[in-house]
Amino acid sequence: MAFRSNSVRAPSGAHQNGATARPKSVEFEVKHLTINHIFTGTIRAEPPAHVLAHHSRKGIPMFRKTVIAGLAALAPAIGLAAEPAPAEATPPPTPEHTITGNVGLFSQYIFRGLTQTNRNPAVQGGFDYAHSSGFYAGTWASNISWLRENASTRAGGVTVANGTYGDGGSLEWDFYGGYKGTVKDFSYDVGTLYYWYPGKINEVFALAPAPFNNVPKADTWEIYAGGGWKWLTAKFSYSIMNKTFGVLDSRGTWYLDLSANVPLGDYYKPLTGFTAMAHWGYQKYRGTDPRNVGFAPAYGGATPNNDTIASYKDVKLGLSYALPKDFTVGAYYSKAYNANTLGYGSVTEASGGGLFGPYPHNIAKSTGTVYVQKTF
Fold first, then answer.
1. Is the Cα dihedral 268, 274, 280, 284 positive or negative?
2. Does residue 318 carry a pLDDT above 60?
3. What is the pLDDT of residue 87?
4. pTM here?
5. Which of 101, 210, 283, 294 is buried deepest, with most CB atoms within 10 A?
6. Of 88, 1, 16, 11, nearest in space to 50 by CA
């Protein structure tokens, strides 16, 4: 690398007296060179200093030889050191509009501790839009089966799958939007989410006596607010419809979600890419569905409320690993507990009063799930 410096001047009075002349000591001025800063490669001249030098027999000042040789040797090092240190990359500005997508294959679909696919595989995916101001909106969908199985019976030792939906009932399609942001290590999120379950109510219920002929669709609308600190989050969801997931008189039903997603590599480098997850949730139902009168034999003739039949708590523990190309693989254990058999049990599980659960298998039972997911 070329660099610029002040020149070294030989004294104007230096001369030779011939081959037979003896070396003559002369005094001349040189500028003492110093490196101003090894990283910038600049050289500055100090005030003139008188240096005593001798001319050689060939007339080349010995001191000049030394300076030239020294500079020649030093030049490569200065050239290398003089390269400017690379500036830290400036992060690109946050785009005003961002659209992302995700798709995943799961061994089953678990929602709030309950299997939605009777422990069968699920394909899930969605799209999200985010504005730089913090506003966002998105949609997400998954196959399900619970709405075609939640009124199953058992006859002659054979389970007859039946549900509140006669047509459709195989899809959950969600729509959501809100506003979120961060303040240092803290985050916040407020929004709304609508669960749509396309399909038609099973016509057989139209033949049932009241109140059992009043069967609503499972569409549900919630508002939510959440906050977080680093890898800890809390979210509270509140139902504003009177038929939460198909349960009548349930406006005000809520769900509390406490979760932790810990990036293990932040604490132990060999585990970079691994994330440990832990979750605890509480689903609390409000009101009393008129159809709960059908459960009265299990409660001494008294009609139980929605809290008794449908409320529960759930836990989840798992681990995920981030792969190249935005793939993620993971596995987790989940279980809903304090879940009433009349609301979530199987047709083979008795609950008193000659009543049994409504599903082919208990959908709240502890289970394991594995998955692979891709974001783009």
1. positive
2. yes
3. 62
4. 0.76
5. 283
6. 11
Question: Do residues 222 and 237 lie in contact, with contact meaning Cβ atoms separated by under 8 Å?
Answer: yes
In the chain, what are the domains? 1-90 (no CATH), 97-375 (2.40.160.40)
pLDDT tens column, 187-229: 999 999 999 999 999 999 999 999 999 999 999 999 999 999 9
Write the DSSP assignment of 36-99 as a string of letters: EETTTTEEEEPSPEEEEEEB-TTS-BHHHHHHHHHHHHHHHHHHHHTSPPPPPPPPPPPPSEEE
Task: Name the token pair of 242.
Answer: 């009177």
Q: Would you say 15 and 60 are in contact if contact means Cβ atoms under 8 Å apart?
A: no
Which residues does residue 312 pair with via DSSP β-bridges, in sequence order? 283
CA torsion 192→197→143→175, rounded to 10°?
A: -20
pLDDT tens for each residue of 20-69 = 444 443 333 333 333 333 333 443 444 444 433 343 334 434 434 443 44
- The whole-angstrom separation of Cα 322 and Cα 328 is 5
Residue among 101, 106, 146 at smallest CA distance from 124: 106
Token pair for 240: 């504003």
Contact call for residues 245 and 238 (beta carbons, < 8 A): no
Tell how far CA 210 is from the center of its chain.
47
Residue 88: pLDDT band by 50, 70, 90 thresholds?
low
pLDDT at site 69: 45
